[in-house]
């Protein structure tokens, strides 16, 4: 790897034909998988530093059966969250994915929710209701939102978050609420427009009392991660 190589964080969601995960569970699991690596990169600290030095690109692929078993055999961590299983792998150069990950499908990952979400826990990652994103795209964006929230958290905020297991809630905001939260100075994900949506689109806002915003503290500048 050289300093000019663009890095990407691979995420794999398990989607079996007989029992696909709930959409919200998959988005939350993706965010928690990213947080797990940020909090404790372990042996992949070098790869993580190289990845965070550039755009924090994430690509979500799907797997089932033998595909999933091959993905689990590769270095990484699996987050199990209610109906969802998501595996996060150490960052790799954009054009040098491990073969068993590169062959997995990336586009058209669709999931749905069969019931109403339960009570939200902080932080809440608010999805923009005005955008139409596949589940795979939304998972990557939720991961971005969690990462921006982690960067915006001080030591006390991270410790409290860690004590709760680095959990998040993903919810779709009402249009007026989403716009207001963008204006509050909370961490905002603005997409680069590589896939599905227009460049500069605000996809997610991360919301928690310790993240600042105009309501309770100094403004946290929006960041463009991808």
TrEMBL record:
It catalyses: an N-acyl-L-alpha-aminoacyl-tRNA + H2O = an N-acyl-L-amino acid + a tRNA + H(+). Keywords: Hydrolase. It holds the Pfam family PTH2. It is an enzyme of class 3 (hydrolase). One of its GO terms (molecular function) is hydrolase activity. SUPFAM superfamilies: Peptidyl-tRNA hydrolase II. Its EC number is 3.1.1.29. This is peptidyl-tRNA hydrolase.
């Amino acid at each position: 790897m050289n300093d000019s190589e663009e890095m990407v964080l691979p995420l794999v969601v398990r989607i079996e034909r007989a029992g696909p995960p709930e959409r919200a569970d998959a988005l939350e699991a993706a965010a928690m998988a990213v947080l797990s690596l940020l909090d404790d990169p372990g042996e992949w600290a070098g790869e993580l530093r190289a990845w965070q030095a550039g755009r924090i690109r994430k690509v979500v692929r799907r797997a089932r059966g033998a595909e999933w078993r091959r993905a689990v055999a590769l270095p990484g961590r699996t987050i199990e969250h209610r109906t969802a299983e998501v595996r996060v792998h150490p960052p790799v150069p954009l054009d040098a994915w491990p073969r068993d990950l590169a062959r997995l499908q990336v586009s058209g990952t669709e999931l749905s929710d069969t019931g109403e979400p339960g009570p939200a826990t902080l932080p809440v990652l608010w999805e923009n209701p005005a955008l139409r994103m596949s589940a795979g795209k939304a998972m990557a964006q939720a991961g971005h939102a969690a990462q921006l929230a982690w960067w915006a958290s001080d030591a006390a905020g991270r410790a409290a978050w860690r004590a709760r297991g680095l959990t998040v809630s993903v919810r779709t905001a009402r249009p007026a609420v989403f716009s207001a939260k963008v204006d509050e100075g909370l961490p905002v994900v603005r997409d680069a427009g590589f896939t599905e949506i227009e460049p500069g689109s605000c996809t997610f806002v991360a919301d928690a009392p310790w993240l600042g915003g105009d309501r309770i503290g100094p403004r946290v500048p929006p960041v463009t991660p991808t």
